[in-house]
């Protein structure tokens, strides 16, 4: 059976906006430029994997910046909606590794040398996401000395409060006893565990009915960190199965370097509180 093309479907795009022009598809679909000689079939996969990841990272940053503004404005509900969207994007990013994992070691070896010193380690958007979540490291800025726009973005992310900073300030304004040294800390530095904050979260978790929105926000942040760690782990395993223990193209130790990232945490007290929550009396 042949489906009829309905009369109302727009066909004239001399004036009307088309799908392709709206999305700038000529630019997007023309942005893949393999460098291998002769061009290797699988290099397109490698390029598209990383380009699509960068697009998703752009959306994550867009959402997290809105979350920062909403938390600072005591507007928690849309902030939670934004975090929920970020979580879905994270799952998509993690699942993408399964596509790249179809690239076998022998296939990748045929064009890896053409990549030179380019590496995902140099993704300024990924660094901006980490900085926005609190894992700040000013030493990373020197990597972007040759890219003024990227360095400016990252400097702004280092100098701004992280999502966790803004959440803890929100809790303080809601009457929770967040330690003063946390509220007054230097936000350009990476966040460090503070045992005095754990009782604040114990109270929220043990009295969840009273502090439901704060409790829900805590769990959203834990979900976000867990998703981030799953992404890191999947990245590690994909690299391991593709290049083994070779050094990274950007100069890192490769798998060993990625494994150390699994020890990094954004919201340490939200994990520490789980040890302290009391069993309710029956």
List keywords for this structure.
mainly alpha
Poorly predicted segments:
none
Helix percentage: 55-70%
Instruction: Name the shape in a single word.
Output: globular
Structural class: mainly alpha
CA(first)-CA(last) distance:
66 Å
Rg (CA only): 23 Å
Order of helices and strands: HHHHHHHHHHHHH
Count of beta strands: 0
What does the main sheet amount to? Answer: none
Mean pLDDT across every amino acid position: 94
Q: How many helix segments?
A: 13
What is the strand content? under 5%
Write structural notes for this entry:
The model has no long low-confidence stretch (mean pLDDT 94). Helix 3 (43-72) runs antiparallel to helix 4 (76-100) and helix 3 (43-72) runs parallel beside helix 6 (124-133). It is built from 13 helices and no strands. It is mainly α.
